[in-house]
Description:
single chain, mainly beta, 5-stranded antiparallel beta sheet, two-stranded antiparallel sheet, elongated
Amino acid sequence: MVNAVPPRRPARRRLWMGTAAIAVLAVTGTAGVAAARLMAPPGTPIDASLSEAVHGTFTGTGTLDLGPVPKGATNIKIIVTCLSEGTFTFGDFGSMTCRKGDVNDQTWGAVPLGLDQQRTITLETSPTASWSVSAHYTKTVQTEWGVNEAGQTFGAPKGDSNPDLIPVTATNGERGYLRLEDYESDNLEGWTMEDAAEFIEGANRLDRYLPVYASDGSTVIGEFLFPGTDSPPVFRTQ
């Protein structure tokens, strides 16, 4: 199975990576899944807002109370803005350090609701450091794979299940899809135990290229490299 991994490193100030932070989209309104603008392959979980944002401005350590948890909420989405220099720590979820040139910078993310995290957001900092926060409840919504005119499914893998077309980044930087049947046949069909052992040991393994397609499953837009013994990986799957 090819794992779906974002092709670029997370933004420098995206620090809190809760379960909902993997969704790359914008959702507006109080419950608008229909208003979501999907920025990731079909099948990627998204965040749907369940409440209006609650705002607060603090100097020193402070706590923001979001009010009662709506039914079905699974996460809290948070945006923190530092208004002065300082280090701002949010429990075990991470911290941000603002220097002189970072004032008014933001960090954002989502944290899962649980026994240790419910309706309040507390940031610890020095008595003179100022900051503001905006937060609201969300829930993780699963999305369906896309289906092209040929009847092939495409999108992000879900657990142990893969669509017919898996998202990858080609060697030319284009984002497209790898045919699952190409991947599986190229890696598994006709292999002996000796072949598998040789592959694991990395002996005499050559670079291999597979075509990368648009979501229609037929238009080739690039190649995907499976590095051989002497070639370090350059591009990863999305």
